[in-house]
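Example 387.
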Amino acid sequence: MRTVPPGAWLGLLGGGQLGRMFCMAAQSLGYRVLVLDPGAASPAGAVADAHLQAGYLDAAALEELGARCAAVTTEFENVPAEALGRLAAHCVVSPAAASVAVAQDRAREKRFLAGIGLDTAPFAVIETAAHLEAADPALFPGILKRARFGYDGKGQARVANLAEARSAFQALGGAPCVLEQRLALDLELSCVVARGFDGATRAFPVAENAHAEGILDVSVVPARVPAALAEAVQRATVRTAEALEYRGVLCVEYFVVQGERLLANEIAPRPHNSGHYTIDGCVTSQFEQQARVMCGLPLGDPSAHSPSVMVNLLGDLWAAGEPDWTRVLSNPRAKLHLYGKTEARPGRKMGHFTVLAPSVQQAAEEALAIRAALREDARRTPLARSA
Ligand code: ATP
Ligand code: MG
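Predicted structure in complex with magnesium ion:
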């Protein structure tokens, strides 16, 4: 692939926070970014060099993107594969529509993972009510997950038994689902890998993730697991990227059960929330790596220069008004990232912060203390706060 030099335009499908952080990384390398997003105000649109406000399948918008941009990427997996396919006729597209299509569908994704020798949680594909009746009773208690368009635990229902699964399937509109056995998780891990057009791969350090109500809460890096397990995670993630003939940045999420048994949960065909720590904690961030792949540049060094702990800032923290950011900023090793969203809703990702420290334990202690203070503030009324 020919190298795309700085100064060129790069295209981005989607205007969320991942897109915003991609814009910033690409711009600092000297590229200009054109964002396609249907919304008038979006986190990425606000920082992009230009924003095309149109739908992802808008023919004129796709044509303009293809004509102006040397390379195009996406920030979310639910972008119509057709849009990527159409753009591929005009410019470099990473990742390719075919890779995104695997990650868009939980049933395909799970079959793919099994096909490359990775274990997953036991599951059944549920496309009709009859499939549910025939499902192995050992899958209960389980989680019924929509096969497509789920994120942050949305489109999922915890079901104790068949009766609950029947009503959950109905509530999900009878859309295709997978029924997964609910497992006792010892740990959740993830790994971000970049793979270039030349087939070179670089794996970032493994993150240890804690979720709350299906949404990522905290990522601790390096994960506090034996080196052999972390290496197995990196190898499995590289294998995933290679088997998909992937070009770009992807993340694989894993469960650890029964001590050291590794199960692959899902593939995100893009930079990932659990990789935000790379902005402040690694030589190269996941977003810079994404720009490097698109532009045919050599991949950067993914190694961490410091242990780091990332905490998501959800809209719940705005319950008593705009949080007091000195809680974060008064720690000289805490790095605050706000996404510029004006409306804070419970569960909405508004920003994150990362604490860097000489030890992972210290980073975790300081990050959790900041989080506790922000939560405490949010519990008080604005009146009580000013008193
Ligand atoms: P995201 O896209 O934000 O990662 P998602 O909506 O795609 O989320 P999953 O990753 O499938 O959802 O699940 C979200 C979280 O729910 C997991 O990280 C895990 O904490 C929990 N979870 C999911 N599946 C299982 C399972 N089979 N057993 C136990 N816990 C599970
Ligand atoms: Mg997930």
